[in-house]
Design brief:
The protein is mainly alpha-helical and 191 residues long. It has one domain (25-189). It contains six helices and three strands; from the N terminus they run αβααααββα. A three-stranded parallel β-sheet has the order 2-1-3. Helix 2 runs parallel beside helix 6, helix 3 (39-85) packs antiparallel against helix 5 (96-153) and helix 5 (96-153) packs across helix 6 (177-189). The protein is rod-shaped and about 95 Å long.
Length: 191
């Protein structure tokens, strides 16, 4: 009788275990994918790319200015050497003030270019840090609310970050990433 009761309990357990397991559904979301595909992230990236392009254009313009002075300096130095080789020392000496002035301009412009480059890189870094940081913070709050709504809609008991979740049976673990992303983008577009 005990053996029969034990077998009956074991059989009932085997039949009930899939039902119990499905009662503990879990979800996962890929936070990196959500952040990267979120429309506000993409808009912010475009703004940052635009600023980077403006800074790059200004940098190229300044480089061209330095190159013109450098070309003029090299040309003047060559001309002076040619005059000296032709034994026209007086004419060569007449070019020395111009060469000195070009050397000073070149040093000044090169220093300014280096300073501009460093400042523009810092400006771009600070802008990216500020804009992406505030976007990330705002997104964290929105994502939490949307994940909760989506999880409740599917009667999911817990949702985990996908990169910290190594394996799960697809019958028990549902990937909510796309649905959360769609809800986030739809909510932003309706405002």
């Amino acid at each position: 009788m005990k053996k029969q009761l034990l077998r009956l309990c074991l059989a009932a357990g085997m039949v009930a275990s899939p039902m119990i397991a499905s009662a503990f559904d879990f979800g996962v979301v890929d936070a990196g994918q959500i952040f990267n595909k979120y429309t506000e992230t993409q808009k912010t990236k475009k703004v940052l790319e635009g600023e980077k392009a403006k800074l790059q254009q200004e940098l190229e313009s300044r480089k061209e200015s330095v190159k013109k002075i450098d070309d003029e300096y090299v040309s003047t130095a060559k001309k002076m050497q040619e005059l000296r080789d032709a034994k026209k020392e007086k004419e060569a000496q007449a070019l020395e003030p111009k060469l000195k002035d070009l050397r000073q301009q070149l040093a000044q412009k090169s220093g300014d270019l280096q300073k501009y480059f460093e400042e523009s890189q810092k400006t771009l870094y600070d802008m990216e840090e500020k804009q992406m940081g505030s976007l990330s913070k705002a997104l964290d709050e929105k994502v939490d609310a949307v994940i909760k709504q989506v999880a409740q809609k599917h009667s999911i008991k817990a949702v985990f970050e996908k990169r910290f979740f190594y394996w799960g049976d697809e019958k028990v673990v549902k990937d909510l990433t796309e649905e959360v992303l769609q809800a986030l983008n739809a909510a932003k577009g309706s405002k």
